[in-house]
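Q: What structure does this chain adopt?
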Amino acid sequence: MAKIFYKVVLTVAFISLLHSAISAAQHRSYIRLNELEFTHLPLDVFIQTLLSLFTIMYAVLHLAGDFKEIKASAELENKSWETFRNIPSFYVFSHRGGKCSPSKASLEESE
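A:
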């Protein structure tokens, strides 16, 4: 239920940010048409932009889930030394040990 709420908040905030961008572009074109000097955006557009931005950040933080610690050792503290060496990409199954084994050699000769 909470995720749906934050998704709706995020959508509304993005629409509000898009509206403030369109308002800023319209203000800029109005200034150009009237040959006025651009000093700053209107206060209502500026406030809407900031509120939309902060609302987007708030909603994204709640939708993103749990964050991991920046410290690299925080995740590795619970693992033992044996699990560090257990890397599947280093597994070798077709090695020459089978050729040297007396039981394997006698089975291959009988075939």
